[in-house]
Structure formats: C-alpha cells, structure tokens
Amino acid sequence: MPNPLKDLKVKISVVVRMDKEVKFYHQEAAENEAIVQRLKDAGKDAFDTKQATEVLQESYMMIPDSKNRFTKALEDLLSFLEENAADADILASPQFDEAKALLAANGMEFEPHDEPAAAEEAEYGEGEVF
Fold this sequence. Notes:
Elements: H1 4-42, H2 46-83, H3 88-91, H4 94-105, H5 116-123
Helix pairs in contact: 1-2, 1-4, 2-4
C-alpha cells in the first residue's frame, strides 16, 4: 500500500535536488566563462581556447534542461498536494509546510479546494435538507 507521506518526502527531495542542479549549472557556466576569458586575455593557443569554449557551450546547453526538470518537479509536487489535499496526515505534517514553502519560493501556490459537500450545503436555505 502506498504511503502518501513518504511520496511527499520523495517529491520534496526531488525539487530540492533539481534546484541545486540548476544553481550548479549556472555556477559552472560562470566559471567556464571566466576560464575562456582568461585564455583569450593571455593569448593562449587557439586550440585550448576552442576546447574551453566548447566546454562552456555544453554548460549552457545543460541549463535549459535542468530548468525544465526543475519546473516539472515543482508541477509534480503541486499536483501531488492537490490530489492529496484531503489527507489529514499530509496536511498536519511538517513536510506539507516545507512543500508549500518550496512552491511559494518558486512562484507557485497551493490552494486547497473546498469540500464539494460544503459548497452544496451553502446552496440551500435555512431549514432545507435534501
């Protein structure tokens, strides 16, 4: 039987890992830019400069891919929260607060939906029972 709390922990870990990966690739690209610039400034061999430039281009190519995986992980986390919004164990867990904070920090917001039964009851006037 699946454990939703464990699944939530895994999804949070994936988001955190993908966030670190995006930051790492940005940092790597900046470091490679500095290396290429140093080689050009020092007038190093064209072959060395070309090799460093190719490494820089590979770093640039990894950024969009890692951002896409990060966005997908965030969407997956949001979808999971929406699907399990009625689970009291999840709502009461510290991981739920962590998940909401991760989503909010990245421009996404989890808004639990009202129970359908409560919406139906609001339609009826006082004393009406169906």
